[in-house]
């Protein structure tokens, strides 16, 4: 009798749990539907803010009409004073810029009551310094940031001509920065300084308008759903729209990258903290790169962690790792391997030592191409269940010693035929310093080059990311900020932005660019977002026992990171030290303590031998602090 009663109670409990589970599932479903409806409504209202009153059915004399006329008059008056300032500077032989309207004059027709409605704006820099570079950025506060293309150099008259196409009506500001060869000081604005313009939506404004934006936002397929187009990211083109647009697929700052419907024809989907925590199966992302690509790794890790777990990320061992680091939380693992491809040797040539200024770059006799190949083999000699779903690997394209046949082809050819992941290739042009600062003809050459290279690999799993395209639009917001354009190759920087809605979450690594690329990798690991979320629901519903409390997060981070960058290391099968729990700050170590006495001819404490320092340098490049001079010397004797 007692057994029958126990069975009846157990049956009732299971029934009750199932009923409660159905109730909560239905409640969550209705809540998500309401949230989606609210977001669509907010998005429509946000887009409506960008409609110009001149193109809307608003009665004459309305407040909007008056505001528009006031803004037009203010803009014209401000422009007139700036034009006079620019003209004076040009006459005196100083560098300055002019903005041209549809009348092809350096100012607006002040007798015309309407502002111009261009499909393209032309900016001309007069008397440019031939030793310097120039950056032309166009911004609308919290709405848009973009750059103008260098389309022509008129050396005979001493000018540089840039072009920019607006995408929605409104007020913008043009910033022109001059970038010299120094790295320590700011990049000044070129005369006449910040220049305001106003774009009026009208019939002649080709490519401008909210309706065209809305089509790109709502009707493009997810980029990760396009399987067989190896060229998809080899012409990275689109627009950065700010938090005022309230777009659903945005990085944590509220900014969104909207790919071009013509060149890319897809949308970049983003994933928030809760969605990342809900990943139901093991996923792994591997990043092989320089400190620039390390920024992508750190952005991904920062997206994974809550405020307490990640508050020391920038001071931790993994925050500046010149070896290998990994972070695993629940079902997502992200790994970084320092991969200095500029040091890859040509295996057909004799070995040498290399010095950057007074420091030895790598240990004598070490072969980076050999060790890099061993790291690649290590990845895929593991059980297939441990293979990464997505790999992002930098290549040496653009470096003096780059050899495609030795430094890229063997890696792609050694991908297991059964691997169903995605390999993204990048190059040296992914940088906040170069930042797409090149002419249109040079850029077109680069695009054709990477298109040919990725096509020649003949592998549908490989994509090549257009470095200048990714870098150029946010060049004012690299590591050092808008006053240091082109001064740092890094995009990411340390910050602490606490989530207003949920103070348990925070952003400790700030960068729109690296977070956008991180979301691109994550999207290819998870698949189209709607399908991913449906799968999460299916997995959740497959569990019969209802558990109202979530299980605690499992965070493990591992590292094998040398204390100093130089001499560089590329070590397969490193001895990783692992820690469970939140990231912790590491002890400071002064790498500058290793100094060269200027006399020794031997290799001591990672310093360059004196006889090698006496040789002429073969190459040079700018670092974060100064110029680096590269010397290569034969590997002889006890070296």
Give the topology, please:
Blueprint: H1 2-48, H2 63-91, E1 96-100, E2 121-126, E3 133-140, E4 144-147, E5 149-154, E6 159-164, E7 170-179, E8 195-199, H3 210-218, E9 238-241, E10 256-259, H4 273-277, E11 283-289, H5 291-304, H6 307-310, E12 324-329, E13 332-338, E14 352-356, E15 359-360, H7 368-381, E16 390-394, H8 404-407, H9 409-413, E17 422-426, H10 440-457, E18 462-464, H11 467-472, E19 493-498, E20 506-510, H12 512-526, H13 529-541, E21 555-560, E22 577-580, H14 610-613, E23 619-622, E24 627-634
Helix pairs in contact: 5-12
Which labels suit this protein?
639 residues; 8-stranded mixed beta sheet; globular
Please describe what this structure looks like:
The protein has 639 residues and is an alpha+beta fold. The chain contains 14 helices and 24 strands. It has helices spanning 2-48, 63-91, 210-218, 273-277, 291-304, 307-310, 368-381, 404-407, 409-413, 440-457, 467-472, 512-526, 529-541, 610-613; strands spanning 96-100, 121-126, 133-140, 144-147, 149-154, 159-164, 170-179, 195-199, 238-241, 256-259, 283-289, 324-329, 332-338, 352-356, 359-360, 390-394, 422-426, 462-464, 493-498, 506-510, 555-560, 577-580, 619-622, 627-634. The strands form 5 sheets. The protein has an 8-stranded mixed beta sheet with strand order 18-17-16-11-13-12-21-22. The protein has a 6-stranded antiparallel beta sheet with strand order 8-7-3-4-9-10. Strand 19 and strand 20 (506-510) form a beta hairpin. Helix 5 (291-304) packs across helix 12 (512-526). The longest helix is centred in the first third of the chain and has 47 residues, at 2-48. The radius of gyration is 28 Å and the shape is globular. The N and C termini lie far apart (88 Å).
């Amino acid at each position: 009798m007692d057994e029958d009663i126990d069975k009846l109670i157990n049956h009732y409990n299971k029934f009750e749990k199932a009923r409660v589970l159905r109730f909560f599932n239905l409640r969550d479903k209705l809540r998500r539907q309401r949230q989606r409806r609210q977001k669509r409504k907010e998005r429509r209202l946000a887009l409506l803010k960008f409609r110009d009153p001149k193109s809307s059915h608003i009665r004459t004399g309305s407040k909007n009409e008056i505001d528009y006329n006031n803004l037009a008059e203010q803009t014209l008056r401000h422009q007139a004073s700036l034009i006079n300032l620019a003209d004076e500077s040009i006459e005196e032989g100083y560098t300055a810029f002019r903005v041209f309207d549809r009348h092809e004059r350096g100012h607006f027709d002040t007798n015309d009551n309407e502002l111009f409605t261009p499909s393209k704006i032309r900016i001309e820099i007069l008397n440019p310094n031939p030793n310097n570079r120039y950056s032309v950025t166009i911004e609308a506060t919290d709405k848009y940031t973009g750059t103008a293309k260098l389309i022509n150099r008129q050396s005979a008259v001493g000018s540089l001509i840039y072009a920019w196409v607006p995408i929605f009506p409104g007020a913008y500001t043009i910033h022109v920065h001059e970038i010299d060869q120094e790295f320590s000081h700011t990049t000044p604005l070129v005369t006449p300084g910040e220049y305001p313009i106003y774009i009026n939506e009208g019939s002649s404004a080709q490519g401008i308008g909210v309706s065209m934006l809305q089509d790109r936002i709502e009707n493009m397929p997810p980029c990760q759903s396009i399987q067989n187009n190896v060229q998809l990211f080899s012409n990275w083109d689109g627009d950065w729209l700010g938090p005022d647009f309230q777009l659903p697929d945005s990085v944590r700052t509220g900014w969104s990258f909207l790919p071009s419907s013509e060149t890319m024809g897809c949308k970049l989907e983003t994933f928030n903290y809760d969605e990342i925590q809900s990943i139901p199966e093991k996923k792994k992302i591997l990043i092989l790169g320089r400190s620039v690509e390390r920024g992508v790794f750190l952005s991904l890790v920062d997206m994974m962690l809550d405020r307490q777990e990640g508050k020391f990320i920038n001071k931790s061992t993994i925050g500046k790792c010149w070896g290998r680091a990994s972070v695993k939380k629940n079902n997502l693992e992200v790994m970084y391997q320092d991969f200095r491809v500029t040091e890859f040797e040509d295996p057909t040539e004799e070995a040498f030592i290399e010095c950057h200024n007074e420091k030895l770059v790598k240990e004598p006799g070490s072969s980076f191409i050999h060790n890099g190949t061993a790291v690649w083999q290590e990845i895929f000699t593991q059980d297939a269940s441990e293979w990464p779903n997505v790999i992002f690997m930098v290549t040496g394209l653009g470096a003096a010693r780059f050899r495609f046949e030795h430094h890229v082809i063997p890696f792609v050819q050694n991908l297991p035929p059964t691997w169903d992941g995605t390999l993204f290739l990048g190059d040296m042009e992914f940088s906040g310093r170069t930042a797409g600062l090149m002419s249109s003809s040079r850029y077109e050459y680069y695009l054709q080059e990477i298109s040919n290279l990725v096509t020649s690999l003949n592998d549908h799993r490989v994509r090549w990311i257009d470095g200048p395209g990714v870098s150029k639009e946010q060049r004012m917001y690299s590591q050092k900020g808008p006053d240091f354009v082109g001064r740092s190759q890094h995009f990411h920087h340390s910050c602490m932005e606490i989530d207003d809605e949920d103070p348990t979450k925070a952003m400790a690594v700030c960068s729109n660019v690296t977070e956008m690329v991180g979301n691109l990798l994550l999207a290819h690991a998870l698949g189209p977002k709607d399908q991913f979320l449906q799968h999460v629901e299916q997995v959740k519903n497959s569990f019969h026992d209802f558990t109202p409390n979530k299980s605690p997060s499992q965070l493990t981070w591992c590292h094998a990171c040398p204390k100093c960058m130089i001499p560089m290391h590329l070590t397969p099968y490193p001895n990783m030290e692992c820690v469970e729990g939140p990231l912790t700050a590491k002890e400071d170590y002064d790498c500058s303590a290793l100094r060269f006495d200027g006399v020794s001819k031997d290799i001591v404490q990672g310093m360059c031998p004196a006889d090698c320092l006496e040789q002429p340098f073969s190459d040079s490049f700018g670092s974060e602090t100064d110029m680096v001079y590269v010397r290569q010397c034969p590997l002889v004797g006890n070296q």
